Amino acid sequence: MPPWVSPVASYVAGGLRTTAWLALVSVVASVVAGILLGTLLTLPSRIVRGVVRAYVEIWRGLPIIIILFFIFFVLPIIDIRVDTFVAAAIGLSLWGSANMAEVVRGAVQSVPHGQAEAAAALGFSWPGRMRHVILPQAARRALPPLIGLIVNLTQQTSLAAVIGLLDVLEASQRSIERLTLSGGYAHAVPILGAVLGVFFVVCLPLTMLSRWFERRLR
Q1: Which one of 23, 210, 217, 218 is least enclosed by Cβ atoms within 10 Å?
Q2: How far is the CA of 129 from the CAs of 38, 39, 115, 141, 190, in angstroms?
Q3: What residues contact residue 12 under an 8 Å CB cut-off, 6+ apart?
Q4: What range(s) does the ABC transmembrane type-1 domain occupy (predicted)?
Q5: Which residues contact 9 (CB under 8 A, 6 or more apart)?
Q6: Which CATH class is domain 5-217?
Q7: 3-state secondary structure of 1
Q8: Number of neighbours of residue 120 by Cβ within 10 angstroms
Q9: pLDDT tens across 187-212, in order?
Q10: 68-75, long-range: CB < 8 A, 24+ apart
Q11: pTM of the prediction?
Q12: Structural domain boundaries of the chain?
């Protein structure tokens, strides 16, 4: 084994752990906030729907890289400073929750309206109808796009490198630079190939799972 492999592998593994934590935090926050926001989009109140719709359209309409730059470089102007991990997690969660809200809204509205009417006739309040009747049915419809969103968020964690977060991509880039300076050889192909393999191994099973759910729910 070449002598450069072990230190590079250890360094990139640290970046991989950061990427895994960032993906986990972003996915959990996006799913929880997205379910709440998507449910609020189905409320009868136009005011509530209007406020939530504004949130969704703003964060869905912005590229993730712009959101990251805004949080990390613009907010300090008004004395709001966060470290790179928190900035990346917030940025990804804002984008992810807005997209998740649309997934939930679409799934809820795809449930036949007669289900809600029948539940109302049985005396269920709006929260009761959502909890016991609508959301359980909507959950099956939301699974394929939810898994797709998880894959997308996992892939987008690589953008956190633009604000200096030492994720797996940033760690690999720094390793390439160090090897170039120290020995004149970048070894970029095996290093970046390993990073590509990591994302492939993580994302491919999720993509296949999403397709399986789509076939099952047809």
Answers
A1: 218
A2: 15, 12, 9, 17, 54
A3: 168, 171, 172, 175, 191, 194, 195
A4: 16-210
A5: none
A6: mainly alpha
A7: coil
A8: 14
A9: 778 878 888 888 888 788 888 877 88
A10: 68/159, 68/160, 68/162, 68/163, 69/162, 69/163, 72/163, 73/163
A11: 0.84
A12: 5-217
- Give the C-alpha separation, 50 to 110, whole Å: 20
User: What are the φ and ψ backbone dihedral angles of 33, each rounded to 5 degrees?
Assistant: -65, -35
SS (H, E, C) 73-95: HHHHHHCCCCCHHHHHHHHHHHH
Q: Are 195 and 168 in contact (CB under 8 A)?
A: yes
**pLDDT tens digit sequence for 86-110:** 999 999 999 999 999 999 999 888 8
CA–CA separation, 5 vs 203, rounded Å? 25
Residue that has been written with the tokens 């729910």 in this structure: 217
What SS3 state is found at 45? coil
Q: What are 209's two structure tokens? A: 């799972």
